[in-house]
Amino acid sequence: MVHTLAQAEAALRAAHARSLHVTLRSAPGAANYAGLDFLKPLFETAARSNPEAKYNVIIDCGSDPALAHRAMVMGFQRITFSGPSAMAEKIAQIGKKCGARLVTTRTPAHALDLLDSPHPENACETYLDQRRAQKTRKNTDL
User: Fold this and answer.
1) Which domain holds residue 111?
2) What are the beta bridge partners of residue 140?
3) What is the tally of structural domains in the chain?
4) What share of the chain is helix, strand, coil (3-state, %, to 5)?
5) Is 0.90 surpassed by the pTM of this model?
């Protein structure tokens, strides 16, 4: 999980240096407390500073259906929503029209959370090197 621009940039640099595709995940409920107007430029700026990096972004919208809908309209393609399943189905239908989809709200147990990392690039490098040795899949969650 990334919480700052520096962390997102570090993750993309480390992944690109290893020719890996990564998933940058916002913290649980980040869209609620940080706001989509903060998160959108954070990920866009990180991508501009690492134009050759291959990545996906998952935005956690908590249980707020309006926020999940707005995230789709803003162009986020992967969104987590923890509200009622009936509402999730409606949001998923809207997502199909926007080219977005709902993904699991569960953060993988192996995901790296950079919240308290004093050196995010070093943490990402170590994590990706370890995951590369363990995995056969192409995507690695951060």
Assistant:
1) 5-141
2) 22
3) 1
4) 50, 15, 35
5) no
